Structure formats: C-alpha cells, structure tokens
Write the structure tokens for this entry.
Amino acid sequence: MSPTAAVPVPITVSVNGRPHRHQVEPRLLLVQYLRDVLGLTGTNVGCDTSSCGSCTVHLDGDAVKSCTVLAVQAAGGRVTTIEGLSAGGDLHPVQEAFHRHHGLQCGFCTPGMVMAAVALLERHPQPEPDEVRRALKGNLCRCTGYHNIVEAVVAAGRLGDR
Amino acid sequence: MIPAPFEYRRAGSVDEAVRLLAEHGDDARLLAGGHSLLPALRLRQVAPAVLVDVGRLSELAYVRDRGDHLAVGALIRHCDLERSAAVAAQAPLVGHAAGLVGDPQVRNRGTLGGSLAHADPAADLAVAVVALGATLVARGPAGDREIAAADFFVDRHRSALAGDEMLTEVRLPKAAGVPWAYQRVSRRAQDWATVAVAAVGAMSGSEQVTVALAGMGPVPLRASAVEQALAAGEPVAGAAAAADEGTAPRSDVLAGAGYRRHLARVLVRRTLESLAEPPNLGSTAT
C-alpha cells in the first residue's frame, strides 16, 4: 500500500489529431491529463462523481466521461475534445446550432453537452426531441436550459440533412 | 477527490490477469470499464495497491451462439449488448436491461462482467441474469468453473469470485419468443433502481414463470413466494401481494424499507399483467 508503489506509466495518446507522449501517474484521470498536462481547459470538471457529463469527450469515437477514465486507460487511443471539433476557427454545426438556438446560459455544461450531442448525431443523424432528451440524460444543466439545448441538437440534425 | 496511489498493470490475456491476481492477493483489483471502480476509488471507499487492467482484452468482447445458450464475453460493453441483434433475439431482457444502465457515456465504457462482479443488489443486469437463470463462468489458477447466477451474488458488493478469479463469460439460456417484462423505479434518470422487477415466462404455459427483484435485499433475489403462488394457480393480484415475502429491503437515502416493499408488490403486479398481455414484447417504466 505504500505510495512509492505507484510507478509512472508511459502513455501515447492522440488528442485532437496530435500525438502526445507523457509519463503519467496511474491515478491521473483523463480529464486532469487533458486540462493540467495538455492545457486543454475547454473540458470542464463539474461534479467529479460521474453524474454531470461536463467532462464528456470522445475516446475512440465514443462519448465518455473523462473524469471516470484513467489517462492510462486512454493510452494508444484517440481523444477528441471540444477544442478539436472545429477546423480553422469555424464553429462545428452543433456549436453553430447551440449559438443560434441559445442552447446555453452560463455555458459550464456546454462543452460536454456539445460532445454528447455530436456523438448522438454521428449515430442518429436526425433524432427526434425525445431521442435527444434520452441521449443527453448523462448531461446536467444547472441553469435548466434543456429546452433550447434539445432544440439546438434537433436543428443541428436537420442541418445535416441539407 | 484524487484516488489513493496504486500500481497499474495491464494484463495481456485472461491468464495473465489471473496470475497477477494470484500474485497480489487481496491488494489487487481488476479494472474493466471502471465505471463502478473509479467512482469508488475517487471517493476513497477502496484503495487497492494494484489495479490489473483487463479493459483491452478484446478476446472477451463477444456474443456467440452455442446452441441452447448465448455465450457473452464478460468484457462486452453495455452499449454493445444494447445493440446486439443476437441478444435482442435470444435474450431481449438482457439487451433491455443493458440499455437502462446509467447513461450513454456510462454504457460506452461499462462492461457486463464489471457490473456483475461489482455485485450491486440494485443493478439492472444482475437482476436480469438471475431472472433468466444464467450461468457465469469464472477463471482461476485451477481453470474454469461455472456458477449459477443465483449463487453468484453473496452479499452487497460481494460476489462468489475468489480473490484470484476473474469472471470471463455469461451464458444466457436462449429465450426467443418467451414473454418477459421489466419494471423499474428510480429517483433520478441516471440512478440505480430503487426497486426493479424482472419476470420471464408465459403466464398460460406449463413452464414456471420466474420473477426476480432488485433493491429488495443485499443481493438480487428470486421472488419465490410469487413464483410458488403462480405455480399453484393463484391469480396475478394474489401472487403479487406476496412479492416482498422473504425479502430484507433496507432503508436508505433513496427509500424506506416499507416503500420498497410497496414498490415490489406494485411492480411485480405490473410485470405479471404485462406477461399475460399478448404479444408480450416486454415493458418498462423508468
């Protein structure tokens, strides 16, 4: 049980298309790696108990809560954060839809909401409002701005139809 | 909170994982999807010295048709179970239960074996495998052994697995076309069930209807009194009234024991009514 037993582990992770190599402590969470080691602070830590979804990123294409993944578990994987969504400063269509439909109030939950919504739309390109609500069940908005968030995601799906 | 320090070992095979468990004894824990273990580590409810990561063992992420049963690898994720056509056809209760776990992000990481080995008495997948009479397979230093689902859950968060054993496979008896129903009450959308009921079997058939309860004691339970009443020809209302017989629900932040008993009786009645209504495609309430 001695703390000295924790040997740092070398990891290679692709984050937003760029490879990174670091020695990390095994107990380092993926969200801490992204924020504190790589400086990607767009991913927020809300509840720290796997409940709120603010820390949602994509790992190998799936939406995951990065507060409940160890950095070592992401070794060899492909991570996309909110910073990696848009190319060349343009907003991603889901970000654009959140902007247009006022899908955010304080904005704290927004990066996680957007990442969860993007993952949903990749699987179900044109979800109904009810499907959006179910798919965003792991993301909490303490401003309770759910109505416009759902409208934004539905609108982003219809945008993809054009 | 930040977890206490631990040593990290990634197992390259099931046998290596078992070897590492044998080597480190009670100081070691298996890490699969981590969606039960990591929250517990962060709350410092557990502080193992060694984590043996089996999450990348793709050899255990399968669904195979073996004639009379579906063999499901322990490391299949909830989202894969939820989308598996074979599971939907042959063990739809399990696919349905997998789709109720946590939220999409949790289901993208959490695994069937991890959920069962965590042995939470309110887990949807645990009560589903008990209702189906599944068989679990564990690998230890001496090889494989089979454990009936009903014997696997020993106490709250304690399974029949020895310290050097790993759950590798879950064998689901094929139940294509067999009526099933699932009813669940939880306080919040992502929560564990306060009480859940799984029922399998035709109300009009000669085969016994099985009914299992989650949240009604330290382990998922068969509702034996209900099953016996049904076998004796008791109507649904009478059988459901016996739902909490022989159970030992506790009072906690989610519900008092009395409310849990009430929920069990109501939810058992609803599942049995649902079984009796053709086409019995299953039902749920969350």
